[in-house]
TrEMBL record:
<dbReference type="InterPro" id="IPR005886">
    <property type="entry name" value="UDP_G4E"/>
</dbReference>
<dbReference type="InterPro" id="IPR001509">
    <property type="entry name" value="Epimerase_deHydtase"/>
</dbReference>
<dbReference type="GO" id="GO:0003978">
    <property type="term" value="F:UDP-glucose 4-epimerase activity"/>
</dbReference>
<keyword id="KW-0119">Carbohydrate metabolism</keyword>
<dbReference type="InterPro" id="IPR036291">
    <property type="entry name" value="NAD(P)-bd_dom_sf"/>
</dbReference>
<keyword id="KW-0413">Isomerase</keyword>
<protein>
    <recommendedName>
        <fullName>UDP-glucose 4-epimerase</fullName>
        <ecNumber>5.1.3.2</ecNumber>
    </recommendedName>
</protein>
<feature type="domain" description="NAD-dependent epimerase/dehydratase">
    <location>
        <begin position="5"/>
        <end position="253"/>
    </location>
</feature>
<dbReference type="Pfam" id="PF01370">
    <property type="entry name" value="Epimerase"/>
</dbReference>
<dbReference type="GO" id="GO:0033499">
    <property type="term" value="P:galactose catabolic process via UDP-galactose, Leloir pathway"/>
</dbReference>
<keyword id="KW-0520">NAD</keyword>
<comment type="subunit">
    <text>Homodimer.</text>
</comment>
<comment type="similarity">
    <text>Belongs to the NAD(P)-dependent epimerase/dehydratase family.</text>
</comment>
<comment type="pathway">
    <text>Carbohydrate metabolism; galactose metabolism.</text>
</comment>
């Protein structure tokens, strides 16, 4: 019989890719999702339960019914800008909701969790590669909420013997090779999907957020990691917990920075379509440079990126967007008129 794993937020972007990777590794992913932002048709590799992570009784019952040996926890509100305007939502969902989940795990006797954390816990740490020891100073309620959960997990380890690994993602992007699942949000705020939606005539207001950063071309630099690599890191982290690891926190990035203009140039090359690179104002809360030092995940989890070359990210993402939006697309030129 396959080992069942509870996947909160398994109907979302990273969560659904983790389910696909879990299934490929021989596990049975059991999705718990309230479908506030997730998609029912992204749940393809195991059963789904509709409900909230804050509902400890439901969590305990689901873990017990399916015999879940561990948890991957993705369910969260995850937009930096929205967290600044609506912090209560972020602390309630991300911190309060997680407390409900952990209580349910305790009731059911489940002791292993892989937590979806973020590089936003570091705030604006300067231009060098970010290690796990880099000082944490989140500048958004989103980052602060994730940092708080990391602290909660350490305290639950001390008090209750709960074992956890926190995975601090840099910029998740790309889609499954078969274009089965990919990025689909409403509203969409992320660079690559917005650029592609603009090419497909789905949005009219695409702009480069800031061209006056202290970088070589003036645009912000990020570390883009393919969602398939992220998903694989979760499977490795789960295996480490099952192998006896008790606590850990790892940066997950490609270790390479790309500026907004470099990403847009690659999109033009892959799609063969010119982008209108309109310059806009900086977006509040965006630091100039965020690039991971991935050495610790490599040493301790055996994690290396295999799909995170920018060309592969853009190719897979474009296939997904053509499938998701292409048929209904209006030519960009018509919209510009
Ligand atoms: O239409 C757009 C959208 C984005 N950008 C720029 O592109 C870069 C990447 O932006 P994304 O929105 O794609 O990603 P973020 O770096 O803002 O977000 C990522 O990093 C955050 C922490 O900083 C959180 O972890 C978040 O969940 C994660 O997606 C930024 O410089 C942004 O300003 C544009 O120029 N135009």
């Amino acid at each position: 019989m396959k080992t069942a794993i509870l996947v909160t937020g398994g109907a979302g972007y990273v969560g659904s890719h983790a389910c696909k990777a879990l299934a490929a590794a021989g596990y049975l992913p059991v999705v718990l999702d309230n479908f506030s932002t997730g998609h029912a048709d992204f749940v393809r590799w195991g059963p789904q339960v509709k409900g909230d992570i804050a509902d400890s009784a439901l969590v305990a019952e689901t873990i017990t019914r399916h015999g879940c040996a561990g948890v991957m926890h993705f369910a969260a509100a995850s937009l930096v800008g929205e967290s600044v305007s609506n912090p209560g939502l972020y602390y309630a969902n991300n911190v309060g909701g997680t407390l409900g989940l952990l209580e349910g795990m305790r009731q059911a006797g489940c002791r292993s969790i892989v937590f979806s954390s973020t590089c936003a816990i570091y705030g604006d740490p300067g231009t060098g590669p970010i290690t796990e020891a880099t000082a944490q100073a989140p500048i958004s309620p989103y980052g602060a909420s994730k940092q708080m959960v990391e602290r909660v997990l350490r305290d639950f380890h001390t008090a209750h013997g709960l074992n956890s690994i926190c995975l601090r993602y840099f910029n998740a992007c790309g889609a499954s090779e078969d274009a089965e699942i990919g990025e689909m949000r409403d509203p969409e705020t992320h660079l690559i999907p917005r650029a592609m939606m603009s090419l497909l005539g789905r949005i009219r207001d695409f702009a480069v957020h800031g061209s006056d950063y202290p970088t070589a071309d003036g645009t912000a630099i990020r570390d883009y990691i393919h969602v398939r690599d992220l998903a694989q890191a979760h499977v490795l982290a789960l295996g480490a917990l099952f192998g006896g690891k008790k606590l850990g926190a790892y940066n997950l990035g490609s270790g390479r920075g790309a500026s907004v203009l470099e990403v847009l140039n690659e999109i033009e090359r892959v799609t063969g379509r010119p982008m209108a690179k309109v310059s806009g104002a900086r977006r509040a809360g965006d630091p100039p440079v965020l690039v991971a030092d991935g050495a610790l995940a490599r040493q301790e989890l055996g994690f290396t990126t295999r799909h995170s070359a920018m060309s592969r990210i853009i190719e897979s993402s474009w296939r997904w967007h053509l499938k998701a939006h292409g048929a209904a697309a209006a030519p960009q030129a018509a919209l510009a008129a």
